[in-house]
Please model this.
Amino acid sequence: QKEVEQDPGPLSVPEGAIVSLNCTYSNSAFQYFMWYRQYSRKGPELLMYTYSSGNKEDGRFTAQVDKSSKYISLFIRDSQPSDSATYLCAFAVSGGYNKLIFGAGTRLAVHP
Amino acid sequence: EAQVTQNPRYLITVTGKKLTVTCSQNMNHEYMSWYRQDPGLGLRQIYYSMNVEVTDKGDVPEGYKVSRKEKRNFPLILESPSPNQTSLYFCASSGRYSGANVLTFGAGSRLTVL
Model:
């Protein structure tokens, strides 16, 4: 079993749609949960960062963590063409310097 | 502008010809690391460095070398490249004030080994 599973997509949605991106994981030691966004020909950039279970909202983006089910989600409301990118979930055991474990990424296309 | 700079961005080389991919950051970050990104496999860590003269292997270190002689620089060395090292490479850094898990990535270096 892979440590992190992420549906590669591609996911194609119309502008204005609500998008749900998901990852499952198997390592119960993960305490920090992140979503990185990667535009074509660019490096990933941090989008959302959460610690432990619960929800975190930032504008149109909501990150949700369910540690009991080992499942994290990223919701994008009122999706825009500028949201078209690959979204990578990432996990860490501690808040200090340590290895991040990344999902393979989900490619999202938002069409006008 | 705070950034991680990688060079070259694109490189085509032949098997066995030594090459170096440079990485430099201007944020005074302690932690630097190298990842490779392959379709379906995501980002996998090659090597990382906690500070100057401190480096350690990641998940896929075979065929690579690194050094950290200065805080800002962390070059990736392929002594004898092989076709299975054809990949997209990213350098990343983080610091104690930005948060250790908040990685700043370079724009990537696409390497093709023939």
Notes: The two ends of chain B are 36 Å apart (CA to CA). Residues 41 and 77 of chain B are 22 Å apart (CA to CA).
